[in-house]
Specification:
74% helix; 13 helices; 245 residues; single chain; mainly alpha; globular
Length: 245
Amino acid sequence: MSTRERKQREFAEREQRFLAAAHEQICQDGLLSLQMAKVARSCDYATGTLYQHFSSKEDLLVAICAEMAATRVDFFQRVADWQASSRERMFAIAVADMLFAHRYPEHFRLAQFVFTEVIWQAASPQRRRHTLEVCKPMGLIVEGIVNDAIAAGDVDTHGRAPMEMSIGQWTMTLGMHNLVHAEGVLDLYDLKDPYRIMLSHVQMLLNGMNWQPHINPFDEQQLTDKINHVCSALFGDMCTEQEQR
């Protein structure tokens, strides 16, 4: 290994240490308590060394968001690799996002913060581009499912682009993540098990698009069976009994 290669590896390893330390600090103390000096100190480096990797605290926050988004892509990839109908896979995308949110609730709190104008625009263009590239495969996976549905005759797009056909589900899941993390909002309306409600509405949305085969979204046992099927087929290593119910 050349000196240059060794230095590049060391740089990458040090950056991962900084990201892990920052993520831990956020989980323990909250987003607004993140301090660059504290992150550097926890890794036994000077603050100046941390700034060699991240130009600002905003840069660091965007980088953490990208790291967690890569894990979210892994959840979606399981669905992409599943040999099931297009409708089952579209529903499974929503289940995958629900499971990811249960395991990494801090990701959506962070994402809400990171994609505000004040944080996003303050991060370096390089970090923003990298984050968008990391997230891009999720859109491509969903677009692929829509294309499969078109090819199989499961749905008629009426000339609309594949991403247009999936954006309703995307906004629905994103909106539910935001509601779940807005403390007290759902309690105000006594809404229990919000993600199950979301999954029922996903089925309504797909029915409204005439995506075959139609599912009765008000059949609670059928909904449970659908969730259990996705969990056992794709996420048996992580689904809890509570999530399957």
